Hints:
By secondary structure, the chain is mostly helical. It has 2 domains: 7-182 and 299-327, Rossmann fold (3-Layer(aba) Sandwich); 216-293, Orthogonal Bundle (Tyrosyl-Transfer RNA Synthetase), CATH 1.10.240. It contains 13 helices and 5 strands. Strand 4 (145-147), helix 8 and strand 5 (178-180) form a beta-alpha-beta unit. It is globular and about 70 Å long. The model has no long low-confidence stretch (mean pLDDT 95). Bound molecules: adenosine-5'-tetraphosphate. Adenosine-5'-tetraphosphate (AQP) binds at residues 12-13, 15, 21-22, 25-26, 148-149, 151-152, 186-188, 197-201.
Amino acid sequence: MQQSKPRVFSGIQPTGNIHLGNYLGAVKNWVDSQDSYENIFCVVNSHAITIPQDPKILHQKTYDLCAMLLACGINPQKSTLFIQSTIQEHTSLAWLLTCITPMGDLSRMTQFKDKSQKNPKNIFAGLFNYPNLMSADILLYKSNFVPVGEDQKQHIELARDTAMRFNRDFGETFVVPEPLILKEGARIMGLDDPSKKMSKSSSDKPNHSIALIDAPEVIVKKFKKATTDSEGIIAFDKKRAGVYNLLNIYQCFTKESQEAIEAEFFGLGYGKLKERVAEVVVEGLRPIRESYEKLINQKDYLHKILEEGEKCAREIATATYKEAKEKMGLV
Ligand code: AQP
């Protein structure tokens, strides 16, 4: 494949319902910058099994998420979209990288600490090794940039270190990738507990997250219950996490400056803020939900897009893996 623009790679796990954090922190940026890059996007189902999943649900959610990414605006004419497990080179390269990554580096990963705390009875080696699979995803495509939310920054730093170590020890092979993290939306917090990031795996808590498929009345209800504080002042103050989170979401949808937003809400109460945030979110997500409802029934179209994406991604993945494997002396 001829590369004329810098390449971006990013992925998302089919571990539950995609939420506002995933959308504002990652997917919206993928969509908005499709013209600037050569884009490769992936539903990372092999990452999902680092936490136990129901196989039937995982299978279905993988296709649902592909349809949702198209509904969000991923354009198959401009971007390659595929499912991670269809290209074996991801796990094959992850093994090579596992063999050159110090245990100490992996033990520092905060996501491993967080997720093992959340699932203390199910801590498997795959969860510990997750960052190497993520490095493989990125390095396999010689990606220049990786648009992600802030929670993934540490994993990208590890991918950079791994690329540099490989290049140093076995000869120039991988591009050292840069994270692309936007200021607004990089870290959307849970509506019920704004000290924790909005997360798919906490969606069992009824008012934690806004799913992109939530009906308008559900969105309004969840925002009404969002945790704020007792100060009653509407301002972008990071120390008041609940109000800050609502304003941050509002800014992502309205694209107005912080000053303009603070002026708009000057003298108003939290009830009004919640109502207005819910309104812009409902309107912003409406076209996505409507498009998703159509796409989810167009199975042949979806499979065709994914097959084309897989073919395109495979071409790059096969070549890079062969190069890395041979450099390490594997027959
Ligand atoms: N709360 C968030 N705010 C901003 N960005 C976020 N992302 C995730 N949560 C937020 C970004 O979404 C992309 C896809 O995430 P993922 O599917 O790889 O999983 P994750 O980072 O582990 O996110 P979740 O939703 O919290 O899933 P679970 O609960 O399964 O771990 C990434 O770019 C991520 O930064």
